[in-house]
Amino acid sequence: MNFAETLWSLIVIFLYLSYLVVMFQIVADLFRDSELGGGLKALWILLLIVVPVLSALVYLVLRGRGMALRQEARAQEAVTSTEDYLRSVAGAPGPARQISEAKELLDSGTITEAEFSMLKAKALA
Protein backbone atom coordinates (compact mmCIF):
# COMPACT_ATOMS: atom_id res chain seq x y z
CA MET A 1 0.00 0.00 0.00
CA ASN A 2 1.48 3.34 -0.98
CA PHE A 3 1.22 6.67 0.82
CA ALA A 4 -1.77 7.96 -1.19
CA GLU A 5 -3.82 4.84 -0.47
CA THR A 6 -2.94 5.01 3.22
CA LEU A 7 -3.85 8.69 3.40
CA TRP A 8 -7.12 8.06 1.58
CA SER A 9 -7.94 5.19 3.96
CA LEU A 10 -7.31 7.43 6.97
CA ILE A 11 -9.55 10.15 5.54
CA VAL A 12 -12.34 7.66 4.84
CA ILE A 13 -12.07 6.16 8.34
CA PHE A 14 -12.12 9.64 9.90
CA LEU A 15 -15.19 10.66 7.91
CA TYR A 16 -16.97 7.40 8.74
CA LEU A 17 -16.29 7.77 12.46
CA SER A 18 -17.45 11.40 12.33
CA TYR A 19 -20.61 10.27 10.59
CA LEU A 20 -21.23 7.65 13.32
CA VAL A 21 -20.75 10.23 16.07
CA VAL A 22 -23.28 12.56 14.42
CA MET A 23 -25.78 9.71 13.99
CA PHE A 24 -25.46 8.63 17.63
CA GLN A 25 -25.89 12.25 18.75
CA ILE A 26 -29.05 12.57 16.65
CA VAL A 27 -30.53 9.28 17.90
CA ALA A 28 -29.70 10.17 21.52
CA ASP A 29 -31.28 13.61 21.05
CA LEU A 30 -34.39 12.04 19.56
CA PHE A 31 -34.88 9.73 22.52
CA ARG A 32 -34.15 12.44 25.09
CA ASP A 33 -36.50 15.01 23.55
CA SER A 34 -39.69 14.90 25.63
CA GLU A 35 -41.53 17.40 23.40
CA LEU A 36 -41.38 15.20 20.28
CA GLY A 37 -44.04 12.51 19.95
CA GLY A 38 -43.37 8.83 19.41
CA GLY A 39 -44.59 8.86 15.81
CA LEU A 40 -42.24 11.64 14.82
CA LYS A 41 -39.37 9.93 16.60
CA ALA A 42 -40.08 6.73 14.66
CA LEU A 43 -40.26 8.71 11.41
CA TRP A 44 -36.90 10.36 12.06
CA ILE A 45 -35.32 6.98 12.89
CA LEU A 46 -36.78 5.49 9.70
CA LEU A 47 -35.44 8.40 7.66
CA LEU A 48 -32.03 8.00 9.29
CA ILE A 49 -32.01 4.36 8.20
CA VAL A 50 -33.33 4.90 4.66
CA VAL A 51 -31.52 8.11 3.66
CA PRO A 52 -28.95 8.59 6.42
CA VAL A 53 -26.80 11.48 5.20
CA LEU A 54 -29.64 13.59 3.84
CA SER A 55 -31.88 13.07 6.87
CA ALA A 56 -28.98 13.79 9.24
CA LEU A 57 -28.30 17.08 7.48
CA VAL A 58 -32.00 17.99 7.50
CA TYR A 59 -32.25 17.09 11.20
CA LEU A 60 -29.25 19.22 12.07
CA VAL A 61 -30.63 22.18 10.11
CA LEU A 62 -34.18 21.93 11.44
CA ARG A 63 -33.54 20.84 15.03
CA GLY A 64 -29.89 21.74 15.60
CA ARG A 65 -30.59 24.76 17.80
CA GLY A 66 -32.97 22.80 20.01
CA MET A 67 -30.46 19.97 20.11
CA ALA A 68 -27.79 22.37 21.39
CA LEU A 69 -30.16 23.85 23.98
CA ARG A 70 -31.12 20.40 25.27
CA GLN A 71 -27.44 19.43 25.48
CA GLU A 72 -26.66 22.63 27.38
CA ALA A 73 -29.54 22.02 29.79
CA ARG A 74 -28.31 18.46 30.46
CA ALA A 75 -24.80 19.74 31.09
CA GLN A 76 -26.10 22.39 33.50
CA GLU A 77 -28.16 19.76 35.35
CA ALA A 78 -25.06 17.60 35.65
CA VAL A 79 -23.04 20.49 37.07
CA THR A 80 -25.77 21.37 39.56
CA SER A 81 -26.16 17.75 40.59
CA THR A 82 -22.42 17.36 41.09
CA GLU A 83 -22.17 20.56 43.11
CA ASP A 84 -25.09 19.50 45.33
CA TYR A 85 -23.52 16.09 45.88
CA LEU A 86 -20.13 17.58 46.73
CA ARG A 87 -21.71 20.00 49.19
CA SER A 88 -23.59 17.19 50.90
CA VAL A 89 -20.50 14.98 51.12
CA ALA A 90 -18.15 17.75 52.21
CA GLY A 91 -20.51 18.79 54.97
CA ALA A 92 -20.05 22.47 54.18
CA PRO A 93 -21.87 24.63 56.67
CA GLY A 94 -24.95 26.48 55.53
CA PRO A 95 -25.12 30.26 55.14
CA ALA A 96 -26.57 30.80 58.63
CA ARG A 97 -23.73 28.88 60.25
CA GLN A 98 -21.10 30.69 58.15
CA ILE A 99 -22.55 34.06 59.19
CA SER A 100 -22.70 33.08 62.87
CA GLU A 101 -19.07 31.92 62.77
CA ALA A 102 -18.09 35.18 61.08
CA LYS A 103 -20.03 37.11 63.77
CA GLU A 104 -18.12 35.24 66.48
CA LEU A 105 -14.85 36.23 64.80
CA LEU A 106 -16.05 39.84 64.62
CA ASP A 107 -17.06 39.86 68.30
CA SER A 108 -13.70 38.42 69.34
CA GLY A 109 -11.92 41.11 67.31
CA THR A 110 -10.24 38.68 64.92
CA ILE A 111 -11.77 40.31 61.83
CA THR A 112 -12.93 43.81 61.02
CA GLU A 113 -16.44 44.97 60.14
CA ALA A 114 -15.48 45.15 56.44
CA GLU A 115 -14.23 41.56 56.50
CA PHE A 116 -17.41 40.47 58.26
CA SER A 117 -19.51 42.16 55.57
CA MET A 118 -17.48 40.42 52.88
CA LEU A 119 -17.89 37.00 54.55
CA LYS A 120 -21.60 37.61 55.01
CA ALA A 121 -22.06 38.54 51.35
CA LYS A 122 -20.07 35.47 50.29
CA ALA A 123 -22.19 33.19 52.49
CA LEU A 124 -25.41 34.61 51.07
CA ALA A 125 -24.25 34.32 47.45
From TrEMBL:
UniProt xrefs under Pfam families: PLDc_N, SHOCT
InterPro entries: CLS_N, SHOCT
Name of protein: Cardiolipin synthase N-terminal domain-containing protein
GO cellular component, one term: plasma membrane
UniProtKB keywords: Cell membrane, Membrane, Transmembrane, Transmembrane helix
Chief subcellular location: membrane
Membrane-topology annotation of the record: Multi-pass membrane protein
Residue stretches spanning the membrane: 7-27, 42-62
Domain Cardiolipin synthase N-terminal: 27-63
SHOCT domain ranges (all copies): 98-124
Subcellular localization, as worded in the UniProt entry: Cell membrane
